[in-house]
Each structure stands twice: as structure tokens, then as C-alpha cells.
Amino acid sequence: MKYSNLLVPTLRDAPSDAEVISHKLMLRAGMIRKLAAGIYTYLPLGLLTIRKVETIIREEMNAAGAQELLLPIVMPRELWEESGRWPVYGKELLRFKDRHERDFCFGPTHEEAVTDLVRNEIHSYRQLPLALYQIQTKFRDEVRPRFGLMRGREFIMKDCYSFDRDEKAATETYWRMFEAYKKIFKRCGLEFRPVEAGTGEIGGTLSHEFHVLAGSGESEIFASDDPDIAYTDEKVPADKICPKTKQPLKSFRGIEVGQVFYLGTKYSEAFKATYSDAEGKPQHLVMGCYGIGVGRTAAAAIEQNHDANGIVWPLGISPYSVQVIPIAVDDENVRNISFDIYEKLQKQGVDVLIDDRSESPGVKFKDADLIGIPLRVK
Ligand SMILES: Nc1ncnc2c1ncn2[C@@H]1O[C@H](COP(=O)(O)OP(=O)(O)OP(=O)(O)O)[C@@H](O)[C@H]1O
Ligand SMILES: [Mg+2]
Question: 48-304 has which CATH code?
């Protein structure tokens, strides 16, 4: 891509309502713009990073045996009455009426829609196990939308739902997803910890949150030197001692980028979602659900990877992998050599940006430092 053709409106200063560094830098680097509180437009550079995160998620979800589908964003009240969540979900659930005065909501999560699908389509143990995921826009009418993509009202989430024959198989699926999550956040270039967690609104019995370690994180987590042991404040042992190393747990700030839940039969019982086992007897499907905030992951990556001049993208989720910066682009020789490198990289399938603008080297380097593409040819 030629910089001169790219809509990348960089800013010298961030608007004053941007508090955290990722929000400031995403605005300054021309990645996002606010349309309303908690509602953002993704500009080309922002969308490229979002798509890179999504691609990593897709590859690892597919490798873990999950299949992609796309459920509706809008759901009827009746479905949420069946699960019992319509009266209890609270104001985060954005509700509205259609022209016939029927109640609907925008999906903040999709256990209802997917369990409805599966109860209609799955009948036999031979069709199991099944794991379905989507990457979709969610809406949660957050009381305090803030920090840009970190806590939006409209945001992109990957949500996956698993259906197994029994507790043992569902637990295996849970741990397979847990491992897939570790691979995803590693490929995104993040320093993170899986953390034992409570199950909150969604319900269930076993859950882990994945936290990116960053000073600006909203959550306090207690972590051992053993990278597999960490807790949220709800779950930390009273003496704050690691059960394995017997050493005191250390306190960190964390950004929750994903969460996995073992749901059991909570939704399958509510929805009468059963299959017939090998003896032909009906059994409730045993479920799990697994979410990742796509935009929040990109924002958390910036919280962890920036310097005084701007973003320093981990290569795996950088909008472009390489930026060519000819400093005297109006010199024919420089121009030819630069475009030659650019075209060669493109031919090899490298996603490359060339700063073909007739700007001073100072301006070009400042913009390059701000948008943070990690590999440069100059
Ligand atoms: N308002 C939001 N804006 C952006 N991403 C979000 C938002 N709410 C949730 N997410 C992302 O979706 C993932 C799965 O959703 P989940 O239901 O676990 O969120 P949550 O626990 O309610 O999040 P939080 O506690 O931060 O409100 C979260 O781990 C997070 O990465
Ligand atoms: Mg959560």
C-alpha cells in the first residue's frame, strides 16, 4: 500500500477525553475515531490490526476443532425469557421494540441463540462433540464506556460454544480451548496470564480469565512465579500463598482479554437441548463457552508495547509487517530503488507500506514512530 493512498489521519495530540495510552495512540495513529460514547469507527489501519487478531483467532479455533458460523446480532425477547436472563441481565442489555411492538435485544453474548440452533439440529451422540464460534459485533450498554476499544458499547468479540456428551468430554474440550487461548495470545505477542476466575452473569462452575499484564489494567490479579498459577481477587486463597511454590503471590494489574467457562447443563436444561445416547436415552448436552475481545486485545497490545514516540507493534498483529521509508522520494534514483524493494516484498507476499509522500524525513519518521510498524527499510 502507498501511504499517499491510505486514510491515516495522524494527530499531534490526543483528544483530552482519552485517558489511557492505547486509546491516545489509536486516535493519534489514525486507527479509530469515536462516533458516540463507546462506539467507534475502525479506520483502515485500525481494521488491519483487528483483522490480524481475527486471523490468528480463526486459525487456532479451527485447529482446536471449532467451526465458524454467524448468529444474528438481534434476538427476540422470548429466547431470553427461556434462559431466564431477560429479567435479570440488567441495563447492559440494549432492548428495543420493532414496528409490531415486539421486544428484541442486541446480543451481548450468544448462549441463547446458539443453544436454540443446536437443540433443533443436533439429535444423536454421533453428531458430538460440536464446537461453534463466530467473530461478531456485540453490544453491551456499559455504564462507563471508556478507554477506547478497551471498554466499548459496540465491540467485536469472538465467542465459541461447545457441546459434549458428558462432563468428562466437556472438561477435555474446556482444556483444549484453554490451550488454544494460550497459543492465540502468544501469537499476538502478548505477555499474559491465565487466571482462575468466578463465573459472574454467565453462570457455570469452572472458569479462567486471560489477563494481559499492564499497569493500566482494571483488575488486580495475584500471580505465582509458576506461570500457570494466578487468581482474580474473588478467587485468591485467603493467605495469598501459592499452593505449589509456597511463596507469597505477587499482585499485578491485568487487562482481561478473554475468558473460558465450563457451563455444564445450565442452558441445555433451560432450552431442553438434548441428544439421544447410544442406548437411545435423552441426555442434556454439556456446554462450555469461550470469549475473546478482539478490539480489547489490540488495545492491550499497545498498553504493553509502546514507547515515548508511539506504538511498537508485535509483528504478528502489526497493521503492516514492513514499512519502506524513502527519505528523498523526489530523487529519481531513490524512488526507483525504494519502489523496487516495495514491489519485491509485495511479490513475496509481505504486507508492506511505502511512505511515498513528498514530506520531510522528520515528518515521515515521526509518523512511522507513531504508527509503529516494527520492520523498516529506510
Ligand atoms: N465492553 C467491552 N468492550 C470491549 N471488549 C469487551 C467488553 N466487554 C467484554 N469484552 C471482551 O469480551 C471478552 C468476553 O466477554 P465476557 O463476558 O467474559 O466479558 P466481561 O467479563 O463482562 O468483561 P468485563 O469484566 O471487562 O466487563 C472479555 O474477556 C473482553 O475481552
Ligand atoms: Mg469475562
Answer: 3.30.930.10
> Are 361 and 376 contacting, i.e. CB atoms less than 8 angstroms apart?
no
**Which region, left, alpha or beta, applies to residue 20 given φ > 0 means left and ψ of -120 to 50 means alpha?**
beta
Q: What CA–CA distance (Å, rounded) separates 272 from 275?
A: 10
CA distance 146 to 322: 31
Burial class (CB in 10 A: 0-12, 13-18, 19+), 362: exposed
For ligand 2, the distance from its centroid to the CA atom of residue 327, given in whole angstroms, is: 46
Nearest ligand to the C-alpha atom of residue 140: 1
Instruction: Look at residue 94 and give its three-state secondary structure.
Output: coil
- In Å, what is the CA distance from 60 to each residue of 67, 187, 227, 334? 11, 10, 21, 42
Would the pTM of this model clear 0.70, i.e. be above it?
Answer: yes
Q: How far apart are CA 142 and CA 94, in angstroms?
A: 10
Tell me how far the alpha carbon of residue 328 lies from the centroid of ligand 1, in angstroms: 46
Residue 121 host element (H or E): helix 111-121
Judged by its nearest atom, the ligand closest to the C-alpha of residue 92 is 1
The one-letter amino acid at 357: R
Q: Which residues of the chain have pLDDT under 70?
A: 199-204
At the topology level of CATH, where does 320-378 sit? Answer: Rossmann fold (3.40.50)
Same topology for domains 48-304 and 320-378, yes or no? no
Q: Whose CA is nearest to atom 7 of ligand 1?
A: 151
C-alpha triplet 215, 218, 220: angle, nearest 5°: 80
List the chain domain ranges: 48-304, 320-378
Model confidence pLDDT, tens digit, residues 69-103: 999 999 999 999 999 999 999 999 999 999 999 99
* 8 Å CB contact between 373 and 320: yes
